[in-house]
């Protein structure tokens, strides 16, 4: 059996890569939320000086990567691989950012699971001996997502209470072979799970079974339980999906409710910010992790967490053709120190 | 430096994974082309018994994977990771195939570079010690691609001579830690390169600089030249892009013309099949490699080849917003035997 496999679907990294730097850029609404002090840049205008929201999103992703590199005086030629994806058709935010950066690039599509999808691969490339430094990044933008997946904003359509608000935000995480932590230590890769939800305005419910599947496989594979973690954060099930996930996990013998949160709940104040069930989008768990949670590691408030970014793998075409919404969730464990 | 890195951007696998099995499914037009004897299944109807071309494409991808598994009596529970992507928005062909297979899944978007993008990652996961068996797969479908990227087929639009014909086809490649070859031995990962081409009907020209960039970096990193290869196959530059790539490479001191071909040229008979500059689509290099070239390894006619799948990273939105077309190309070396 492959030396780093434990259990069925989890790998334990042998020489856990260290996070060297992160950066986040968010939109005005996110900059008014409870985590506003943890983002590097808060845009005053979500066009970010560009002529379209799509160009603005690509610029956010590119600038988040540049900022993360600048923080540690890293130049693109020292980076072995860039892993990125986003929600836009043909992941143009990522591709156009990769064009400017010139780093060997693996384009990903995992919908809102992209943060942990990209970090999983970026970490394994280092632990596998293929790279010294890698970057994982992702973005989303409320306005570009709305017009691509739902309606033109000018349409002013009503949003049901189950709907989520796509975060305008980008996060970049730089990983290195050598570093002082926090470290990526375990990876449990998602399977596509579909419980037959067909309502594109209830994506939290569509993704919850996938999140539960991955968390349960992780706990079984590693022998950990909720007590082993300071925090287990999904992203982005929001209010409704979160409750469903906790229930499924409880039915399978694990109670994680005391340690569980969701990036879509953390990034907005649900009582005042009119985001209905909470935030969503690739940029949501990226901004919460690369901004808030990373800072909590650096200030010694966290020792071990699991991030489980969740994606709804629908397209407008698949929905029109009557398909239900498959979900996927990739889990990674991050620890302040290793080798003890 | 990471132990498997050679040169700037190439890795040399330490324990090269073996290809264990491949399978291909193609459409009726591809089944009339010069490689018709090398495909496992040739569809009589490109709807493949489904109600939409998108569903048909997803079924092709899924059935190609199943067929490749059946050939070696492999069940999905023995597969560690599934890497796949396609051209459809939100890669629904791949996601829905992954839903049926239940294998931990990394969704990719590399446009027509997906064969070698997925094989690169699938191979590195094994060599890195994370997996025993992985699957790389991709698909494309003329009819689903036309209506998504260009015009509804009912529109009957004219195609300029530089245009390429999206292959209806899917290919799956199963890689394993143990096997009798051929083996994946070197990987050179693509950077996004953009020479400012804005004509979405001339994608070969848009991708040629990326192909040249990757091939040149590979040759410099490894010290190889054309004589070290039986064949260097891009996919899919087609007639016009191929000439441009050969020229750029020649200007940089390497003459690969005697060993060079392109999957878009191989899969169709350009003189009789009315495909203009040649084939394209993720399924093109996938079908040519997993069908024809794999059989040539098995019958001992090939010893060492390089496959360089090339992707045009445009979207209809980026084109409408005046962006040029960035390209990317991922190269992998495949050898009949290793360790001599």
Radius of gyration based on Cα positions of chain A: 18 Å
Measured by residues with Cβ under 8 Å of the partner chain's Cβ, the largest interface is:
A-B, 64 and 64 residues
Note the overall shape of chain A: globular
Order of helices and strands of chain A: EEEEHEHEHEHEEEHEHEHEHEHE
Structural category of chain A is alpha/beta
Report the sheet-strand fraction of chain A.
15-25%
Task: Characterize the largest beta sheet of chain A: strand count, sense, and whether it forms a barrel.
Answer: 7 strands, mixed
Q: Kindly report the CATH topology of the largest domain in chain A.
A: Peroxisomal Thiolase, Chain A, domain 1
**Count of DSSP-assigned helices of chain A:** 9
- Total individual domains of chain A: 2
- CATH hierarchy, class of the largest domain in chain A: Alpha Beta
Please tell me about this protein's structure.
Two copies of one chain form a homodimer. Chain A is α/β, with parallel strands linked by helices and 340 residues long. The first copy, chain A, has two domains: 5-176, Stage V sporulation protein AD (Peroxisomal Thiolase, Chain A, domain 1, 3-Layer(aba) Sandwich), CATH 3.40.47; 183-335, Peroxisomal Thiolase, Chain A, domain 1, CATH 3.40.47. Chain A is built from nine helices and 15 strands. Chain A has helices at 53-71, 92-101, 114-127, 142-149, 203-222, 238-251, 263-266, 282-298, 316-320; strands at residues 5-6, 10-12, 18-26, 41-42, 81-86, 105-107, 133-140, 165-166, 169-176, 183-188, 231-235, 260-262, 279-280, 304-312, 327-335. In chain A, strands 1-2-10-15-14-11-12 form a seven-stranded mixed beta sheet, with helices on both faces. A six-stranded mixed beta sheet of chain A has the order 4-3-9-7-5-6. A two-stranded parallel sheet of chain A has the order 8-13. In chain A, a hairpin with a 3-residue loop joins strand 1 (5-6) and strand 2. In chain A, helix 5 (203-222) packs parallel to helix 6 (238-251).
């Amino acid at each position: 059996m492959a030396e780093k496999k434990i259990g069925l679907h989890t790998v334990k990294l042998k020489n856990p890569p260290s996070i060297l730097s992160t950066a986040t850029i968010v939109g005005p609404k996110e900059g008014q939320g409870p985590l506003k002090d943890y983002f590097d840049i808060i845009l005053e205008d979500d066009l970010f000086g560009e002529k379209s929201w799509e160009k603005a999103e690509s610029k956010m992703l590119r600038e988040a990567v540049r900022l993360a590199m600048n923080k540690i005086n890293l130049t693109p030629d020292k980076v072995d691989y860039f892993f990125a994806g986003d929600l836009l058709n043909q992941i143009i935010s990522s591709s156009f950012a990769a064009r400017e950066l010139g780093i060997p690039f693996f384009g990903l599509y995992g919908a809102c699971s992209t943060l942990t999808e990209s970090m999983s691969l970026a970490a394994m490339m280092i632990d596998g001996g293929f790279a010294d430094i890698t970057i994982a990044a992702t973005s989303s933008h409320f306005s570009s997502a709305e017009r691509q997946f739902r309606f033109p904003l000018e349409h002013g359509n009503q949003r049901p209470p189950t709907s989520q608000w796509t975060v305008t935000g980008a996060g970049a995480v730089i990983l290195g072979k050598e570093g002082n932590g926090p470290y990526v230590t375990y990876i449990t890769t998602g399977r596509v799970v579909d419980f037959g939800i067909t309502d594109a305005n209830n994506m939290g419910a569509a993704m919850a079974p996938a999140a539960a599947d991955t968390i349960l496989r992780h706990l079984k594979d590693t022998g950990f339980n909720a007590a082993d973690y300071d925090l287990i954060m999904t992203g982005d099930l929001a209010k409704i999906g979160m409750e469903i996930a906790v229930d499924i996990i409880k039915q399978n013998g694990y109670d994680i409710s005391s340690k569980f949160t969701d990036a879509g709940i953390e990034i907005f104040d649900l009582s005042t910010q009119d985001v209905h069930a909470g935030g969503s989008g690739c940029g949501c768990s990226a901004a919460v992790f690369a901004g808030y949670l990373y800072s909590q590691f650096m200030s010694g408030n966290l020792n071990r967490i699991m991030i489980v970014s969740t994606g709804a793998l629908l397209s407008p075409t698949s929905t029109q053709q009557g398909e239900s919404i498959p979900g996927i969730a990739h889990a990674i464990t991050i620890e302040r120190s290793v080798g003890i």
